[in-house]
Write a structure and sequence with these properties.
The chain is an alpha/beta fold. It has helices spanning 11-17, 85-99, 120-134, 153-166, 181-197, 238-246, 249-252, 263-277; strands at residues 24-27, 60-64, 76-80, 104-110, 138-144, 170-174, 213-217, 230-233, 283-287. It contains eight helices and nine strands. Helix 2 (85-99) packs antiparallel against helix 6, helix 4 crosses helix 5 (181-197) and helix 6 (238-246) runs antiparallel to helix 8. The protein binds zinc ion.
Length: 301
């Protein structure tokens, strides 16, 4: 049993069914229009009911927490190849930004499915539950093809249009070394779309916009001894980050061996390692290819 209230049967999950007037939920995939809602159960095994005939309302593709408008301007946009990458790599930073009054959004490029224990319906519900914990203003899915993500001209056009629409000051992208081709394609795509987004005299919708910086978070499929540019103290956010990660039951808990350290234990140990390097309990590493400017050394831990 996951022990958190973000899974079906939990309080937060139930809250998601009662859409508040200031939030607009749209569909994640047209197929989900035909899906039905799961029974409100969270089994002792921690399982999520997946039977299509027990589902009713479609999970959401879009999440706009402000005025429900499409033209949501963000301070920070986290771009992820798959739902769960953003939570894994930088849930602590996201909650830190939100706590400081920044408008943060996540753009998932693909559905992340198929996976061994997931489905479109399950993944969408898990994403909704994690999004609720993060407390972010905006989340969408670009519906590019999972496992076949490419930095194509059409994908670049779509992503550049999102940059122009959301106008983030900073973008967060995956790390540029990885085993997962989707993650590598995402990095190339994000950098190209950032460039296109600023172009004038183009047929892209919206006004030109150039996100000032790209930072890279670590959610990688390699056991690399990475050298980050900086580490954020996320000690105040670790428990909520863990809860957000555990919402992705199909990805990190179901079917995993519970002998020895679990995958969630590994994530905790990793966060503790990064925290230890900066004298904090838990940390999150980030990289940046460009030099960072600072006005004072006072903010350094
Ligand atoms: Zn991923």
């Amino acid at each position: 049993m996951c022990g958190f209230d973000c899974c079906p049967g939990g309080a937060k999950f139930d809250k998601l069914r009662n859409l508040r007037p200031d939030r607009i939920f749209a569909i994640w995939d047209e197929r989900l229009l035909m899906a039905k809602k799961p029974r409100a159960t969270c089994s002792d095994a921690g399982g999520v009911s997946t039977s299509r005939d027990t589902l009713s309302d479609p999970p959401q593709h879009r999440w706009h927490a402000s005025n429900g408008g499409i033209d949501t301007v963000l301070d920070i946009l986290v771009v992820a190849a798959h739902p769960d990458d953003a939570e894994l790599g930088m849930a602590g930073a996201i909650m830190n930004f939100v706590g400081r009054g920044k408008r943060v959004g996540i753009l998932d490029l693909t559905s992340g499915e198929p996976t061994p224990h997931g489905s479109l319906e399950i993944r969408a519900r898990e994403t909704a539950a994690a999004t609720e914990i993060l407390g972010i203003a905006w989340r969408e899915n670009l519906r590019l093809p999972n496992r076949s993500l490419e930095s194509s001209l059409e994908a670049r056009r779509q992503l550049a249009a999102v940059f122009r629409r959301t106008r983030p000051r900073w973008i967060f992208a995956p790390y540029w070394v990885d085993a997962h081709p989707d993650h590598l394609a995402a990095v190339e795509l994000i950098e190209a779309a950032r460039f296109w987004s600023k172009l004038s005299k183009s047929d892209l919708p919206g006004e030109p916009h150039h996100p000032q910086r790209i930072f890279h978070y670590f959610s990688i499929h390699l056991r690399l001894a990475v050298q980050p540019s900086m580490i954020l103290d996320i000690s105040d956010y670790w428990q909520r980050k863990r809860a957000a990660i555990e919402c992705y039951h199909s990805q990190f808990i179901e079917g995993r061996s519970d002998g020895g350290p679990t995958l969630i234990d590994r994530f905790r140990d990793e966060a503790a390692h990064w925290g230890w390097l900066i004298g904090a309990e838990f940390g999150e590493p980030f990289a940046c290819r460009e030099p960072l400017g600072i006005r004072s050394f006072d903010e350094l831990t």
